[in-house]
Write a structure and sequence with these properties.
This protein is an alpha/beta fold. The chain has 15 helices and 12 strands. It has a 4-stranded parallel β-sheet, with helices on both faces. Strands 6-5-7-8 form a 4-stranded parallel β-sheet. It binds 1,3-dihydroxyacetonephosphate and iron/sulfur cluster (SF4).
């Protein structure tokens, strides 16, 4: 047997032994992305989980993403390197409040962003991600009133893009994107006048108004790669720098600090480390275990979303 010389070697070996796949979101540290079988945005990773045929998924992202992978693979093991890797959007939207809304408004179609707990997914009619939210809302008959939850900025963006009037929006927000101040984007544009601005739709509307492109994390990476421009101000989590610089080493990418951490990092995403990834493949813990009845109900809106091409 070959001696294990580094933690990366150990992860590769454990992955083979466990018949595991490593799925990593773009906001993970570069050393995790380097070891992943798939790196993507939340929609791409849900599709990768749907196709998976091995025994174990090690999900390097946050809990709602790992829960989605578990719902799509109820008989497989899904592990999350850091059990406390949460999301402020999930915290902003408790399932009891969604149930209460449903009771008061039985005619509404509940469109839930994938950044929700599995319990909220179980109360939802259809899911969406930042990549397909406009398409999903457009797939709902125009006369049906909608509750869009939980991200207020994505909701307002989708409402403007679709021209949908009968759409209520929850008041949740992402602590990373919602705290990017427009004045810092203006300052970055003054400093880099040739740079184009790409923004994630979780950013506030005054930031989105300054953007040349608005899209999911993977859509931002694809767009920056395709453009002729050489400089970009990127209004999302700085983990995307890894793919941006790999695909376009000659281009320059500038990130703007937010007012939450004075950085552009998601504190939850950055809880995962190589050491924790090795440990979860070794111990098969922390494991995502969910009640079968909740998984069955949550699968319906997830599959409805994945069926929309
Ligand atoms: P994406 O759908 O672009 O991957 O975004 C997920 C997310 O958590 C953004 O903050
Ligand atoms: Fe949640 Fe925001 Fe972190 Fe994405 S960046 S996981 S929305 S807190």
């Amino acid at each position: 047997m070959v001696a294990i010389s580094t933690i990366a070697d150990e992860i590769v070996e454990l992955k083979a032994k466990r018949h595991a796949v490593i799925l990593a979101h773009h906001y993970q540290e570069p050393e995790i992305q380097e070891l992943a079988d798939s790196v993507g945005d939340s929609l791409e990773l849900a599709r990768a989980a749907q196709k998976f045929e091995g025994d174990v998924i090690a999900f390097c992202g946050v809990r709602f993403m790992a829960e989605t992978a578990k719902v799509l693979n109820p008989n497989r093991i899904v592990v999350l390197p850091e059990r406390h890797a949460g999301c402020s959007l999930v915290d902003s939207c408790p399932a009891e409040a969604v149930r209460a809304f449903r009771k008061r408004n039985p005619d509404h179609v509940i469109v839930s962003y994938i950044n929700t707990s599995v319990e909220v997914k179980a109360e939802s009619d259809i899911l969406c991600t930042s990549r397909n939210a406009v398409k999903i809302v457009n797939s709902i008959p125009a006369d049906k009133p909608i509750l869009f939850l939980p991200d207020i900025n994505l909701g307002n963006y989708v409402k403007a893009q679709t021209g949908r009037k009968n759409m209520q929006i929850w008041q949740g927000a992402c602590i990373v994107h919602a705290t990017f101040p427009a004045r810092r984007v203006s300052a970055a544009r003054a400093e880099h006048p040739k740079a184009l601005v790409a923004a994630h739709p979780e950013c506030p509307s005054d930031v989105l108004r300054m953007a040349d492109f608005i899209g999911s994390t993977s859509a931002i990476i694809d767009w920056c790669t395709e453009q002729q421009a050489e400089e970009f101000i990127v209004m999302t989590e700085s983990g995307v720098r890894f793919s941006l610089e790999r695909l376009s080493p000659e281009k320059k990418f500038y990130f703007v600090a937010n007012e939450n951490c004075n950085c552009s990092e998601c504190p939850y995403m950055k809880m995962n480390t190589l050491e924790k990834l090795a440990a979860c493949l070794r111990d098969l813990e922390p494991r995502i275990d969910l009640p079968a009845s909740i998984m069955e109900r949550a699968l319906v809106p997830i599959e409805r979303m994945l069926a929309v091409k």
